[in-house]
């Protein structure tokens, strides 16, 4: 069945003024490349951006053989390598926050995530001695032993390269969908822009445990390849419901990040999401998220989104009682850090304390002091007559370290 007909029958595109979405829309990237179907694609993309912040992207142009290879190599990494081989490339061995993380070693929303993973990046040389500390995040990868996994590195270097191009193509379509020039976001990217990727294994667990806690992605966009049939990924609408984002063959799941929400003045929705651990007996869940980076020196000033697009967002908010979007300014606009690079580094310091204790003890102490201040501030607010705690979809960190993470 042609994708357009399938979408029409599913009726899964949320209309404007519907932030209480019940399903995740599907778009075909091929439709954006055909002049006859591109206008309808952009309209559907605009609806997804304003109302959902999550979507399935089909017909990406990725070779099926490459997708099969990266999925196989993901399973092989976790299923073939011994603990000793994985720990040889452990994240804490380097100050780049690239490499392998043990089960339960990353923290989201104050709790340990029940997953193990390896973080990879586009290739970059070691920083120079005079570079700022956040340059450390742009460094060579730690690759598994090629004698054990000879096809791992070639597959992922190819995949990261192709996904880098797809992500840049897609962000230009986002610009068009909200009434901007296709190159409107170009100034937020370096010529040798760093992008990142994770391979993640969520082991089965009794009950609905936290695979990764509620969070929003940072930067502009992320693209998730769900590499096993288990469910677990959920997005939260603004009425507080958790909506399943089950695996769909031939698609990537696109999540809008806090950066895009910030620079569009809240027009594009960055949606809170989480991953539940697979239930006992269902087997582990595997995922391969790609995270589009932005320049660490970028200034996240607001874009001049046309008034008619802003009004569509206002109508959607009015329809659910005028509920405000989460406060995203801290990380990208009015934060305490000198640059986006510093804010990103501090976020990594908070999430990976084993790396931070070894390489960034002073920054970790700073993060913990800010967290302690936030706890005191929250306790004070709770004693006020008009105080109300944030919902699960709202950030309470407007004056502390950002909670945007790289997950799925």
TrEMBL record:
Transmembrane segments: none annotated. It comes from the Eukaryota. Signal peptide: none annotated. Residues 375-408 are annotated as: Disordered. Residues 193-294 form the Fe2OG dioxygenase domain. GO terms for molecular function: dioxygenase activity; metal ion binding. Keywords: Iron, Metal-binding, Oxidoreductase. Gene3D superfamilies: B-lactam Antibiotic, Isopenicillin N Synthase, Chain. It holds the Pfam family 2OG-FeII_Oxy. The keyword Metal-binding applies. Residues 390-400 have a biased composition (Polar residues). Belongs to the iron/ascorbate-dependent oxidoreductase family. This is Fe2OG dioxygenase domain-containing protein. It comes from Carpinus fangiana.
């Amino acid at each position: 069945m042609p994708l357009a007909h399938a979408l029409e029958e599913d009726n899964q595109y949320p209309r404007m003024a519907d932030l209480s979405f019940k399903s995740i829309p599907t778009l075909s990237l091929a439709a954006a490349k055909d002049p006859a179907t591109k206008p309808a694609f952009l309209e559907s993309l605009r609806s997804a951006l304003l109302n959902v912040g999550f979507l399935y992207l089909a017909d990406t142009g990725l070779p099926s053989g490459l997708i099969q290879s990266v999925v196989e190599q993901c399973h092989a990494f976790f299923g073939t390598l011994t603990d000793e081989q994985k720990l040889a490339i452990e994240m804490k061995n380097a100050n780049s926050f690239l490499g392998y993380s043990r089960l339960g070693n990353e923290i989201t929303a104050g709790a340990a995530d029940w997953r193990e993973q390896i973080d990879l990046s586009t290739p970059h040389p070691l920083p120079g001695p005079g570079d700022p500390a956040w340059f450390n995040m742009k460094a060579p990868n730690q690759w598994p032993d090629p004698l054990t996994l000879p096809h791992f590195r070639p597959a992922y270097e190819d995949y990261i390269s192709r996904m880098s191009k797809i992500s840049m193509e897609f962000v230009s379509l986002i610009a068009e969908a909200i009434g901007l020039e296709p190159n409107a976001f170009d100034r937020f990217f370096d010529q040798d822009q760093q992008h990142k990727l994770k391979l993640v294994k969520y082991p089965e667990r009794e009950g609905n445990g936290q695979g990764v806690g509620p969070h929003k992605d940072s930067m502009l966009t992320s693209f998730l390849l769900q590499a096993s049939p288990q469910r677990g990924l959920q997005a939260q609408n603004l009425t507080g419901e958790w909506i399943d984002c089950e695996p769909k063959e031939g698609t990537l799941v696109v999540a809008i990040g806090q950066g895009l929400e910030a620079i569009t003045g809240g027009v594009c929705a960055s949606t809170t999401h989480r991953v539940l651990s697979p239930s006992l007996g269902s087997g582990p869940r595997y995922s391969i998220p790609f995270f589009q980076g932005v320049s660490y020196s970028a200034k996240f000033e607001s874009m001049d989104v046309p008034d008619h697009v802003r009004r569509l967002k206002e109508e959607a908010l009015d329809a659910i009682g005028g509920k405000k979007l989460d406060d995203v300014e801290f990380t990208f606009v009015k934060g305490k850090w000198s640059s986006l690079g510093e804010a990103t580094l501090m976020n990594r310091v908070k999430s990976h304390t084993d790396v931070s204790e070894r390489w960034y003890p002073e920054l970790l102490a700073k993060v913990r002091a800010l967290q302690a201040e936030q706890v005191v501030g929250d306790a004070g607010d709770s004693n006020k007559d008009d105080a109300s705690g944030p919902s699960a979809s709202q950030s309470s960190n407007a004056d502390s370290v950002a909670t945007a993470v790289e997950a799925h």
